[in-house]
Amino acid sequence: MRIVAEHLTYTYNERSPFEKRALDDISLTIEEGEFFGIIGHTGSGKSTFVQHLNGLIRLPSSRKHFHPKKPKRGQPAPPAPVLKVGEFDLCDRRTDFRALRRSVGMVFQYPEYQLFAETVKEDVAFGLKNFAEKKDRPRAEEIETAVREALAAVGLNAAEVGEKSPFDLSGGQKRRVAIAGVIVTRPEVLILDEPAAGLDPLGKREIMELLHELHRTWCKTIVIVSHDMDEIAENCTRVAVFKDGTVPYVATPKELFSHAEELYALGLDIPLTAKLTAALARRGIAIDCDFTTEDFLAKVLALKKGGAS
Amino acid sequence: MRAIEFRDVSYTYEDGDADGDPSNAQRGGFQIKHLNFAVEEGEFVAVLGHNGSGKSTLARLSNRLLAADSGEIEVFGTPLTKKTVYEIRKQIGIVFQNPDNQTVASIVEDDVAFGAENIGLAREEIGARISFALKAVGMEQYRNATIARLSGGQKQRVAIAGVLALKPRIMILDESTAMLDPRGRREIMDVVVRLNREEKITVILITHFMEEALLADRAIVMNRGEIVMQDKPAGIFARHEELLTYNLTLPRIGMIVKGLNAGGMPVSDTLDLEKLAGEIAECVS
């Protein structure tokens, strides 16, 4: 499913003293099959944007009693927002939001804090039951199969952990169960807000490996919000930079991180490989790499061999 | 002078022994075994270890939030016992992970005052200490702000100020930067380093971020409830293979050095970016 957003604007607490413009005329397209990264400071509008993608925040035109604002006299009408996720038109109030939420999975920050059921199986099954159509309730054995497969997809064995309380698991396992509870509806798009935050280094690596595995086998498109530039450089196909409710840059990590000055100006960092590449450039050594550790090492070592022969 | 000393300290979480904290309930049977270490006054020590290695237990033992089963703990030469615990808690401030769980008031100055009020200081003294603490963390202009409207890094700095208002001589940060964004993390680390250098406060920093450990004078690595390594951060990170067995990784720059070495480029084991770039430049030209 392709995600297309055009002229998206959102204001929290509109017409109150706490009014805050969170998104300001954003346009962004995420292609099917991408492993897309979103970066930006706290309060830059990242979360507001991703909450639009499965209808947690509704566009005004998708609400029941919608009366478009009349443009002020003498001013042109602002362009109408567009938000499409695959065939779902999120501007249209006739859209089936239940079906949308089955197709667009959302994993919040620290998802393990949202576990609630008595057993792992029940917790994972909740989303499946909750998003099912009333006339088309899944049967018990269907639920059983779906839960087992979702747990297997996140690397857990249903026979081992299925009957345990989710609160008796380790931190990394809890996070996996929480992710299983989202992918159990087989979403085509999976959105994760800081999936690796708060884990130890090994846990971080395992979660990122898990996401790549899911990307290969389970969800066509993955969108991650992250503060870790190294993580973005190693994993993402493209990156959008959020800044005060706007998106000043959308680029591949390779393009983006070669413009260190612009990112520093936004108060954002660049990956270590990009810093090293810049430090080498100052010493007259040009390296053309995509800023993954693997590629950086290969390019640097290639120079050495070239010099030796 | 020794700020804190553990001699042969052991602790076991019993099954279902939750101590009021549900996260402890799952640790049934987990042990801290024969812990021996000391931190000198004014030192900055980083504690590393994977999840569940016993880092937080170490923090909780040092001010008797958990009472050790056996062994002795001394703080500035005073043995930590039931009788001395309240005096000692004035000297050890702990800042925890989640800023939202550590604030008790809705206005910054009330929150910072809470600890100082609790130990019964005079009104003027409390006022002076709030000013001192907020200045130390760079939050003076937020004295009358609503905590709920602050950023994560700012909330965490208020939590640190609340601890500082007690004028502790030791500060323990238990993954205090884990839930912050990079800017918040930098704010906290700047404050911590400054408190250590200027106010001479002894700092014990528990962290998952290897880059933060590089700022410390010394690092301790824990694994399964035991201390397995103690050295200067550079010394710890030089023992790469050993770290991996404890489920830890190198800081990113260390991984790149290892990668270059493995590919036959003899760069030295440096953690300094400019130095590494210089050495690479020599190798290729």
Q: What can be said about this structure in brief?
A:
The complex is a heterodimer of chains A (309) and B (285). Chain A is α/β, with parallel strands linked by helices and 309 residues long.
Topology:
The complex is a heterodimer of chains A (about 300) and B (about 280).
Chain A: E1 3-12, E2 20-30, E3 35-39, H1 46-52, E4 82-85, E5 88-89, H2 97-103, E6 104-107, H3 120-130, H4 140-153, H5 158-161, H6 171-183, E7 189-193, H7 201-217, E8 221-225, H8 229-235, E9 238-243, E10 246-251, H9 253-257, H10 260-265, H11 272-282, H12 293-308
Parallel strand pairs in A: 3-8, 3-9, 6-7, 7-8
Antiparallel strand pairs in A: 1-2, 1-4, 4-5, 9-10
Helix pairs in contact in A: 3-4, 3-6, 4-6
Chain B: E1 2-12, H1 22-25, E2 31-40, E3 44-48, H2 55-62, E4 70-75, E5 78-79, H3 85-91, E6 92-95, H4 108-118, H5 123-136, H6 152-164, E7 170-174, H7 182-198, E8 202-206, H8 210-213, E9 218-223, E10 226-231, H9 233-238, H10 240-245, H11 252-262, H12 273-284
Parallel strand pairs in B: 3-8, 3-9, 6-7, 7-8
Antiparallel strand pairs in B: 1-2, 1-4, 4-5, 9-10
